[in-house]
Fold this protein.
Amino acid sequence: MNHWLVKSEPFKYSWEKFNQDGRTFWDGVRNYQARNNLKAMQEGDLVLFYHSNEGKNVVGIAKVVREFYQAITQILPF
């Protein structure tokens, strides 16, 4: 099992909102290394949820429940 770090600015998507939703997907990632890390995540891996800019700390632990898939916005032409 691997451990990963994902970050989100609390005003865009907070740990509290994640807990309300129960699960989410990570989209809009433009950094190639970050995308490679998302592709490497395996079901069952643990994820440290980090708040950037405000607080600057790990606020929770989540689990990968689905491996990488292509986002529909990246498949369809505009």
Remarks:
- The first strand starts at residue 3 and ends at 8.
- The mean pLDDT is 86.
- The helical segments are 15-21, 32-40, 72-75.
